[in-house]
Amino acid sequence: MNRSLLIVCLLACSWSLCASSLTKSHNEGKFSDAEIEATIKAKLAKSKIGQEGFEVHVKDRVATWTGTTGVMQHKGAATRMAKAAGAIQVTNHIKVSSDAAAKAKGNLSGQPRHVQVKAAAAASESGQPATTGP
After folding, report:
1. CA distance 5 to 11
2. How far is 29 from 83, CA to CA, in rounded Å?
3. Is 133 helix (H, G, I), strand (E, B) or coil?
4. CA–CA distance, 50 with 24 (Å, rounded to integer)
5. What would the pLDDT profile of 69-127 be if each residue is shown by its tens digit?
6. Which residues are CB-contacts of 112 (< 8 A; sequence separation ≥ 6)?
7. How far is the C-alpha of 68 from the C-alpha of 97, rounded, in Å?
8. In the chain, alpha helices (H)
9. Mean pLDDT for the chain?
10. What three-state secondary structure class fits 52?
11. The domain defined by 27-110 carries CATH number 3.30.1340.30
12. pTM of the predicted model as reported, rounded to 2 decimal places
């Protein structure tokens, strides 16, 4: 009984020492601007959008992005990246090229998309044999 009590006390003491080694910001879930910016830049270096040359700055836990891209989705990815790194707000000044914007607008125009189905695939779904000529 005394041995198990001693083990529990030792574990509690070692846990409190480990917990005290964390900074106050880690305990509260708040990170400094420098920590957030460093995390974003590390994530950016490892990601596909890192090749775009985006700039990011953090002040008062608000991340501000600048740059240009030819891919509409990269702007959203940058915002999500900053939020995941601990920013409480993101100001995204990334400009999307006019070609990418036009392409995205065309995809959302409400026109039905055309699907190409090979004759063999369509026949196997309907249970009929595929025809191979006129």
Report:
1. 10
2. 13
3. coil
4. 31
5. 998 899 999 999 999 999 999 999 999 988 877 877 776 666 666 667 777 655 566 66
6. none
7. 7
8. 2-21, 24-28, 33-46, 72-84, 98-107, 119-126
9. 77
10. helix
11. yes
12. 0.58
* 44 vs 38: CA distance, rounded Å: 10
* The 89-96 sheet, strands edge to edge: 55-59, 62-69, 89-96
Q: How far is CA 62 from CA 49, 58, 69, in A?
A: 20, 5, 21
Place of tokens 């985006």: 54
Residue 61: strand, helix, or coil: coil
Q: Could you tell me the two tokens for 120?
A: 């063999």
Structure tokens at 124: 């196997």
Please state the domain extents for the chain. Answer: 27-110
Instruction: Quote the distance between the C-alpha of residue 68 and its chain's center.
Output: 18
